[in-house]
Amino acid sequence: MTDAGASSALLLSERIRVALADEITTGMLAPGLSLDEQQIGDRFGASRTPVREAFRQLASAGLIEMRPRRGAIVAAMTPERIVDMFEMSAEMEAMCVRLATYRMNPIERSRLRRLHEDSEAMVAAGDIDAYDQLNWRFHRAIYEGTHNSFIAEQATALRDRMAAFRRTQLREEGRPERSRAEHGALLDAIMRGDGEEAAKRMRAHMFNASSAMERLVTTMREERDANT
């Protein structure tokens, strides 16, 4: 495969992964549902290679299970499990922002502020995809600001595991605006050098994300049930 072909396949696998992750986390694809490689490939105009790569990433995130002779099925993910994951993430993120508040240098703080400022136009335009990507960069800048590579690696791994859920919660009406406001409060605490306040704000930020996710999934499931 040429370099261009490899890049195209990678981009397509990412599109497939994101679409399926959104459908799984919102309940559009029910737990236990079998995912057929050929059908999904036809849906996206893709060969089996990018579909299999998307499946591999979804399995790594715990959203699907690969079973012998049964192929891929949607994993069972209860609301309680999702809340547990957000709770763990809240503590990890709070630790990161507390350390980063005390350890970030002026250049890193300025970069974090610029990211926050750049997000204003994305939220105003309702561009969830762009805001989701910038949101990841904002949190990653905090991880790197800890100046502890092991903590940054663990925080990144946990965020990757939860990426689909953290993306989905942004689809609740008004959530991107609230998320950005929460980032602003976080940034203010960091700039003041108040690590404990920053940690407190981060826990609230993650709790709000978890609540938004629960409300969104509940609403979509009720709508689905009403139409069946």
Observed structural traits:
78% helix; 3 strands; single chain; globular; 228 residues; mainly alpha
In short:
The chain has helices spanning 3-25, 37-44, 48-60, 79-103, 106-125, 128-145, 149-168, 175-192, 195-226, and strands at 34-35, 64-67, 71-74. It has a 3-stranded antiparallel β-sheet. The protein has 228 residues and is mainly α.
Mind explaining what this structure looks like?
Helix 1 packs across helix 7, helix 5 runs antiparallel to helix 6 and helix 6 packs antiparallel against helix 7. The protein is mainly alpha-helical and 228 residues long. The N terminus is likely disordered. It has nine helices and three strands, in the order H-E-H-H-E-E-H-H-H-H-H-H. Helices cover 78% and strands 4% of the residues. The protein has a three-stranded antiparallel beta sheet with strand order 1-3-2. The chain is globular and about 55 Å long.
The spatial strand order of the largest sheet comes to 1-3-2
- First-to-last CA distance: 45 Å
Say how many strands there are: 3
> What portion of residues is helical?
over 70%
Q: Structural class of the secondary elements?
A: mainly alpha
* Uncertain residue segments: 1-9
Rg over C-alpha atoms, rounded to the nearest angstrom: 19 Å
